[in-house]
TrEMBL record:
The chain crosses the membrane at residues 37-58, 64-81, 101-120, 132-153, 174-192, 198-215. This is Cation diffusion facilitator family transporter. Residues 1-25, 308-330 are annotated as: Disordered. Its main location: membrane. GO terms for molecular function: zinc ion transmembrane transporter activity.
Length: 330
């Protein structure tokens, strides 16, 4: 039977073969917000660097170091969002959507690096406490809280993983700034200067926890793992239940970027079926997969005589690069 590929880029109610540009239009909004976030974060950096230098507060300087990472991270996220709307071309057939995933990964790694720096500086401060002037801690941290909460609130509903990583930076800064104010109050009332490096350690641990979650998510996408929101076995079961499909194999489910899921598989149909007759089966399969949030579908149809393994997962390749279960190339 001739091989046929079904390409699906639309919702369950539309079976025309076209590309949906809704994601591209949606991306312009967070890109504009990210540009504003970049400018305002630069203001926070300047204020906290000045306040940290004047007050001699490690907690404030640690937060400023985190903000410096934010300036880089948000700037990179902004660039990635602009790149991700570029259309696919012959060299990048999936488009540039994974710029955002790469940016999110780099953001997470830089957060981990700044965490190590904060812990190192806090260790030295615990050994040699120094006086801290609380007034400048209050002023600088208050500026940081107000701006970061304003920015995070404006982007809190975005699903883009890259934007979410930037929002994490902002919330982390706001929490750190709140801690700096609390530390300033303690120092003002008790002159217990050890609270400053102790707070720095708490900030570092908070940053590290969120950073690891972002890194783990981005690695899964780059490794083309099955998205967490999709049950692989359920997808296979639903495909096999589509009338006219006798079996499916070589099934792959992955995410091009956060929220853009894809699937490819081989489907075994009746060998006497015409191409026209197979179209309804393909449309039913596309409709079924749309309910799982899978919007990019490629189905290769075969008859029962085509060499294949009955397992849904493709077997590992041997050293020669040939599939163990294929007698000829697919």
């Amino acid at each position: 039977m001739a091989r046929e590929h079904a390409h699906h880029h639309h919702g369950p109610g539309d079976h025309g073969h076209h590309h949906d540009h809704g994601d591209i239009l949606h991306t312009h909004a967070p890109a504009g917000k990210m540009g504003r976030a970049f400018a305002l974060t630069c203001i926070i950096l300047i204020v906290e660097l000045a306040g940290g230098a004047i007050s001699h507060s490690l907690a404030l300087m640690s937060d400023a170091g985190h903000v410096l990472t934010d300036v880089f991270a948000i700037g990179l996220s902004w660039f990635a969002l602009r790149q991700s709307v570029k259309p696919a071309d012959e060299k990048m057939t999936f488009g540039y959507a994974r710029w955002g995933i790469l940016a999110a990964l780099l953001n997470g790694l830089t957060l981990i690096a700044i965490t190590l720096w904060i812990l190192w500086e806090a260790y030295h401060r615990l050994e040699h406490p120094s006086a801290v002037h609380s007034l400048w801690m209050f002023v600088s941290a208050a500026v940081g809280i107000c701006i970061n909460l304003y920015l995070a609130a404006g982007m809190r509903d975005e699903e883009n993983l890259n934007v979410r990583s930037a929002v994490l930076h902002m919330l982390g800064d706001a929490a750190a700034s709140a801690g700096v104010i609390v530390a300033g109050i303690v120092i003002l009332l008790t002159h217990w200067y050890l609270v400053d490096p102790l707070l720095s350690i708490a900030i570092a641990l908070f940053i590290a926890f969120g950073a690891w979650r972002i890194v783990r998510q981005t690695i899964k996408i780059l490794m083309e793992a099955t998205p967490q929101t999709i049950d692989f076995r359920e997808v296979v079961g639903k495909l096999k239940a589509v009338p006219g499909i006798h079996d499916v194999h070589d099934v792959h489910v992955w995410a091009i970027t956060n929220g853009q899921n894809a699937l490819s598989c081989h489907a075994v149909l009746d060998g006497n079926m015409t191409i026209r007759e197979s179209q309804q089966i393909l449309r039913d399969a596309e409709h079924c997969l749309a309910h799982f949030g899978i919007g990019h579908v490629t189905i290769q149809i075969e008859d029962g005589s085509h060499p294949h393994d009955n397992r849904a997962l493709c077997k590992a390749q041997d050293q020669s690069g040939e599939h163990h279960h294929h007698e000829s190339d697919h």
